[in-house]
Amino acid sequence: RLKRERPRDKVLLFSFFRGTLAYLHRRLGNAGFNSVMVRGGDDKEAIVERFRADASLQVMLSTEVMAEGVDLQFMRVLINYDLPWNPMRVEQRIGRMDRIGQEAETISVFNLVLADTVDDKIQRRLFQRLKLFEDTLGCAEQVLGDVIAKLTRDLLRGGLTPEQEESRIDQAGMAIEENRRAMLEVEESAADLVGLADYVRDRVIKAHQTERHIDDGSLVQFLRDFLEHEAPGHRFRLDSDGSLRGELMLPAPLALDLQAFCEHHRMRPSRLASHQSVKIVIRNHVNAPNLATDCELINQFHPLIKLAAHRSSDRDAEPLVHAVTLSDHVPSGINSGIYAIAAERWGFEGVRKDVSLSACFIRLDGKGLIEGDEAFDLLNTLRAHGRDWIDASVSIEVDAAIAGLECARRKLAARFANHRRAFQAENVDRARLQLASIESSFERRRQQLEAQIARHHAAGSRLEAADRKRLENLTNRFELQKEKIERSNRTREEKRSIAEGIARIES
């Protein structure tokens, strides 16, 4: 009916699962609807522009990747195929369309829920009763997060009767109401927390999905490189059983530097600062089970690793130039050949900070391009398993290498521009949410204080002066918070080349 009555309308459909999107893409195609899918790792900006311009594309199928950082005012129909149990997620999805530039008078939102399921009970007994969908901005993630998470665990664990499920949902509703009342007392300082929980959780999930977290082997390699370049005279030994246990002794100058670093940054002292041989275990976890009392755990939070990272950031900004060869541990799908490499460190700062590394590989014969996640993984593999390519200068054509490097730099420049646009759009969203939070809180408290002042004035109470002072202080704090948020809305950026070179891949 929508296709017949409003043929120009475009539809955005959200689902958590890639398999579901692939199924819907196939079924919609069979029904005569042209659709496009957006998943993590895709170029969102490019897909959105193609979807906007191509009148034949009617439905955009997306995971949560489209819930932040994009503007979709040209659409007015949203379908939640999988309904999030957290209303803040729904508000974020709607926010893609409900923004400045939306020409439609109303936005249509369809929540698909199967009758007599847990989803149905969640929506009917929790969301509708508490009017959470109508009042999500006043019900921030800090209010909902723990309650929804615990409810999710209880319901998914199984073993509850239908009556017990409804009872747990009702208990969650009462807990949310209590949290919301408590939230009113601290809202004035809550602006900086808007969206933070979701952001941290999403970054952790993404790191595990893409294996971008720092593993034990990477930590060992980082420590070895640092000691070889910065600590002449050190003694470093690891046991041959692969347990990453061993001994480390720092030279006197570095031991003193480590002691001063711990004191300056108020970090827990390390026995390595004693200039004595210390038993260590390298494991990138917060703790290590069965760790002997005379053994020191070295993870990414250890003062020595922090000091090494601090010094590496202070080194000369000129990029490292390498010629390397790789014949084993080549990631699947990577073709053999000689590649030009360019890698950059990107930094953005606004409401939050974002630092990332991006790399690009261009095959010198023009028959291969590696970028995005594949390039990042290949760069890590080269760092860990690559060997110096001694005769590179006589094995390649210099002009072709220079042309390849220039092409890789241009590719990175284009990706940087896309990353900047996405960060700026996301930053505007976060600033808007923070500003809405403090404005709502300020207005509510202002009205309460003005009503109290009016009552004190009518009664001739001396408390009127005290409440006027409270109102003045409240206004001053609000103006300060507002200025801070408005400043964070102006993003700052940094781009620095960290490595360039040539790689011979033999897969």
List keywords for this structure.
Rossmann fold; 15 strands; 15 helices; globular; alpha/beta; 507 residues; single chain; six-stranded mixed sheet
Q: What would you note in describing this structure?
A:
With 507 residues, the chain is of the alpha/beta class. It folds into 3 domains: 187 residues, Rossmann fold, CATH 3.40.50.300; 98 residues, no CATH class; 190 residues, no CATH class. Helices cover 50% and strands 17% of the residues. The protein has a 6-stranded mixed beta sheet, with helices on both faces. It has a 5-stranded parallel beta sheet with strand order 2-3-1-4-5, sandwiched between helices. Strands 6-7-8-9 form a 4-stranded mixed beta sheet.
Rg result: 28 Å
CA-based shape: globular
Number of strands: 15
Order of helices and strands: HEHEHEEHEHHHHHEEHEEHEEEEHEHHHE
Q: What percent of the residues sit in helical stretches (DSSP H or I)?
A: 40-55%
| Percentage of residues in DSSP E strands | 15-25%
Low-confidence spans: pLDDT under 50, at least 5 residues? 133-143, 186-201, 203-212
- Number of helical stretches of at least 4 residues: 15
Span between N and C termini? 53 Å
Q: How many structural units, i.e. domains?
A: 3
Counting helices, strands and paired strands, the structural category is: alpha/beta
